[in-house]
Amino acid sequence: MSKILNFFFIIFMVNFVGCSSLSNSAKEDIILIKGSDTMLQLTQKLANRFSEINPSVKFQVFGGGTKTGIEELLAGRVDICNASRNLTSQEAKSLAEYYGSIGMYYLIAKDAVCIYVNKNNPINNLTLDTLKEIFTFESSEIKPTNYNNFQLVIRDSDSGTREFLKDLILPNEDFGKSAKVIATTEDIIEFIKINPNGIGFGGIGFSKGVKLLSIEGVEPNAKNTKNDSYPLTRYLHFFTSKSPSGNVKKFIDWVLSPEGQKIVKEEGFVPLWEINY
To answer: Does the global pTM surpass 0.85?
Structure first.
């Protein structure tokens, strides 16, 4: 009887260890990414294409904003944070304290933060000073003789794009109280489409159906983004808590390859180098 029990115990342990190994292996093959809403669709396209080439590697990609992605990275709950801005000094400090390093960052694309207005708006260009005036306007009164007749729509404080513009244009101020907070860049564009006085901002990859304004006389296009002449040019990043390895490293390397950069271009952003189709 004891021999039979021992036999079944051995079979059970073999199956248990085997299942555990499969579970751990499956978990290792899932790359978790969270962060910038600007980069959400781009990252999903990159992940889907990489999975087609490497069927054993799966992804879970979430938005929520750059700030949220960095918080998840600090908590060890994601493999990659996609970010539309640099780390703040406090975020870099937190990474260093928790992981013993400031982590790793990778530039994966360039982007022009565009100022969106309704297609029927006659304005074509704004200066940085005028943009600051619009961003800090406090009243909801319409004053058609100047730029304060705009209804500014912005993302919430988790948005990397919002923080990028605040640091660049409003380093010691905040957006005016009359600004309307909207959840996503897509929602901002929908608002502007149906509101003649609407004005907002977002990545160059989200420009369908609205008019893009020049800033200081420079158009937000691929050429001016690539050569940094457009004043609101930025890089898009991947952050990791440590030097990546395994499938995470393979994925990041592939994103930086000509094939990955081709998808960057297809999604309306600016690749790091010229891509020939």
So the answer is: no
